[in-house]
Amino acid sequence: FVAKPCAIALNIQANGPQIAPPNAILEKVFTAITKHPDEKRLEGLSKQLDWDVRSIQRWFRQRRNQEKPSTLTRFCESMWRFSFYLYVFTYGVRFLKKTPWLWNTRHCWYNYPYQPLTTDLHYYYILELSFYWSLMFSQFTDIKRKDFGIMFLHHLVCIFLITFSYVNNMARVGTLVLCLHDSADALLEAAKMANYAKFQKMCDLLFVMFAVVFITTRLGIFPLWVLNTTLFESWEIVGPYPSWWVFNLLLLLIQGLNCFWSYLIVKIACKAVSRGKAGKWNPLHVSKDDRSDIESSSDEEDSEPPGKNAHTATTTNGTSGTNGYLLTGSCSMDD
């Protein structure tokens, strides 16, 4: 009701991918046998249909991409996520600035576990938990991306961590973790919206801001501020106990994912800069991308010299890519 009119006002059209031409034999193979035929099957289909292997590869690629959402759909999804991230981060900042543990993290552990659960804190936790549950379920209905496993692990850890800290009344330090990790997400979604709307300079600026905030908060502030209080200050004030070990293990796992994603962001930025030496750079349109569900290698493949053997061409993301917040596509951090 809101995002679609905004997208139309920005001249974002509901253009889908190129439709594969109807073919009963290939459609039967695609739906009943495999979406990624190997070389032997490609040769058999080539003889059966009197098509060259390259054309069959192109048909399967186009058929897989038919399920890819349009730019309009992607814009609406990004706008919805941008709205949520902006709201929840703003709420978290307004809530935390009134709390003593934002300014002195030792207050997270004073009088633990006999700390009152306020209405604002309860609302903040339930809102975040419901959002991660929605991501957990929607991940199975959305287009399956190459980092499906990593994102599934992330959502699972987040849900368990939020629930575990709530049950053990570690909600004070939990709010610090939540707010810190929400700080960069709105910038990413804003960069993606600018990308879909073809606002190049704004997209570049927002992506740079996102990368700086993400790396600063997750590789700097999080370990030096949050992990410091959960590992050392809590040990000093309340001492270790069984759930203390579990809680910190989960936080360290989150930090491991933060390091992995920071590596990807730096890798994407480096590719964009190196590509931009010859002209404009767009961090959200880097070839050999690390996180897209779009098989846009078709443009490169279709432009190969006619004399090149089609059997040696890289066929699809599904067969030659990696599964890993991982290597062709059009939008680098497409969620």
From TrEMBL:
Q: Where in the cell is it found?
A: Endoplasmic reticulum membrane; Nucleus
Q: Which residues bind DNA?
A: 28-71
Region Disordered: start-end pairs: 288-335
Keywords (alphabetical) are: DNA-binding, Endoplasmic reticulum, Homeobox, Lipid biosynthesis, Lipid metabolism, Membrane, Nucleus, Transferase, Transmembrane, Transmembrane helix
Instruction: Supply the InterPro entries for this chain.
Output: HD, Homeodomain-like_sf, Lag1/Lac1-like, TLC-dom
Looking at the record, the residues that make up the TLC domain are 73-274
Catalytic activity field: sphinganine + octadecanoyl-CoA = N-(octadecanoyl)-sphinganine + CoA + H(+)
Q: Main localization of the protein?
A: endoplasmic reticulum
Q: Does the keyword Lipid biosynthesis apply?
A: yes
Q: Domain Homeobox: where?
A: 26-70
- Which membrane topology describes this protein? Multi-pass membrane protein
Any one GO cellular component localisation term in the record: nucleus
Which GO-annotated molecular functions does the record name?
DNA binding; sphingosine N-acyltransferase activity
Q: Name one GO biological process term.
A: ceramide biosynthetic process
Q: Identify the metabolic or biological route this protein is part of.
A: Lipid metabolism; sphingolipid metabolism; Sphingolipid metabolism
Q: Which SMART domains match?
A: TLC
Q: Name the residues that span the membrane.
A: 123-141, 148-167, 203-225, 245-266
- Classification via Pfam families: Homeodomain, TRAM_LAG1_CLN8
UniProt lists compositionally biased (Low complexity) regions at 312-335
Q: Write the protein's name.
A: Ceramide synthase 6
Q: What organism does the record attribute this protein to?
A: Colobus angolensis palliatus (Peters' Angolan colobus)
